[in-house]
Amino acid sequence: MSGRDSPGPSGRESQGNRRPKLSTQAPVGVPLTRRASQVLETIRVSLTNLFSRLALHPDQSASKVIPDLSFDGFLSHWKSNGFKKIVTMVGAGISTSAGIPDFRTPGSGLYDNLQKYNLPHPTDIFELDYFIENPKPFYALAKELYPGNFRPTPVHYFIRLLNEKNLLVRHYTQNIDSLERLAGLPEEKMVEAHGTFHTNHCLECGLEFSKEWMKEKIFSDTIPLCDACNGIVKPDIVFFGEGMPDKFYDMPAEDFKNCDLLIVMGTSLEVYPFASLVGHAEPNCLRVLINRTSIDKFGSPTNKRDINFIGDCDDAVWKMAEALGWSDELKALIKKEGSKFEKPKVRTSDNKHNDDKKPKTSREVPQSNQIEKKS
Ligand code: OAD
Predict the structure, then answer these.
(1) Domain coordinates in residue numbering, the chain
(2) Per the similarity annotation, which family is this (predicted)?
(3) Does residue 33 carry a pLDDT above 50?
């Protein structure tokens, strides 16, 4: 990322003004304001953990939260003891099996594949200052990755299942692909920490525009300009240099209180303040990382509550479902919901003639694209 700090969008600045803005871990040369907010957040979380270890949970510093901190040990503990309050935290890795690239996997990640946009630096595509100067690359990418073209994965449905079993306290996502919504997770159960494409605002006057209005602009390759003041209109996804939605700051204190399991999936935990959420888990809360690559923050040899599953997150949720006896339920849910995404039959000039002679049954009448309807 460029390391520039920006004043943020004028129309929505007040809500995030005193709060840390979205950024990656501070590289050398980042302005003090951004670096300072990250350092302060890290100190705050470390002190909170230290105090709670010393004062509130004296026993937890001495023993492991569960006896066997392997993934199998975690599964057998879940099966025999259960968990009551689960928080999930996810990133782009949970959507790669849907065909959406993540950001940082070398080679396939989005940031290795943006050459055609001639950006000074790949992350500039999500940098507010850059966007204001040149919004074209972002809108070209938005057209390519627009929510509605992809289906949820087993991970998304597993999270929905957790909710249906009244185990999910909250789902924190960095993703802007809307696949959680498409999988049927209720909005109130989610914190879409990096925003969504569902609402849009003018960066100058703050006027709101609908999702349909924005979609029409994106798909007609038109830079969306405000009807009132001609300023640039931007989807409410959070760019580097912007504040996070209020929910992100308001929910964690309550959500993590007595939370006994935190599942972190498909994220490099490179981006703050999202990554700092893992520090909200109390010392007796088990933290499970499910990711293709290991992350330093998790699973030190002396840790008491971290579990690593280094591998594919779809595989991990199938293993969890199997251990808990939920496999059939998960399969049935995926099948039932998957049928909503079946494409209408494509009518070619070859088959049109014959088709026109046949009486139409309800199954043959092309359905409207239900992905669009739900999103
Ligand atoms: P990253 O690309 O940084 O990390 C994705 C992680 O998921 C990587 O560690 C991969 O190894 C892992 N992964 C990929 N596919 C997987 C799979 N099938 N199973 C398990 N693990 C898999 O993406 P995020 O952590 O989401 O922000 O990135 C955070 C933020 O950085 C994004 O929200 C975005 C980006 O800049 C903005 O654009 C504002």
Answers:
(1) 10-194+238-339
(2) Belongs to the sirtuin family. Class I subfamily.
(3) no
b vs e for 319-350, b when ≥16 Cβ sit within 10 Å of the residue's Cβ? bbbebbebeeebeebbeebeeeeeeeeeeeee
Give yes or no for residue 73 having a pLDDT over 60: yes
pLDDT in tens, 76-122: 999 999 999 999 999 999 999 999 999 999 999 999 999 999 999 99
Domain 10-194+238-339 listed as CATH 1.10.10.60: no
Distance, CA 104 to ligand 1 centroid (Å)? 6
Q: Are 137 and 119 in contact (CB under 8 A)?
A: yes
Residue nearest to atom 35 of ligand 1 (CA): 103
Cα 102 to ligand 1 centre (Å): 5
> Which ligand 1 atom is the nearest neighbour of the CA of 125?
38
Residue environment code for 88-115, b if the CB has 16+ CB neighbours within 10 A, otherwise e: bbbbbbbbbbbebbbbbbeeebbbeebe
Residue whose Cα lies nearest atom 31 of ligand 1: it is 271
- pLDDT of 207 above 70: yes
Beta strands 286-291 and 306-310, pairing class: parallel
Question: 151-179 burial string, b = 16+ CB within 10 Å, else e?
Answer: bbbbbbbbbbbbbeeeebbbbbbbbbbbb
Tens of pLDDT, residues 230-259: 999 999 999 998 999 999 999 999 999 999
Distance CA(255)–CA(251), nearest Å, equals: 6
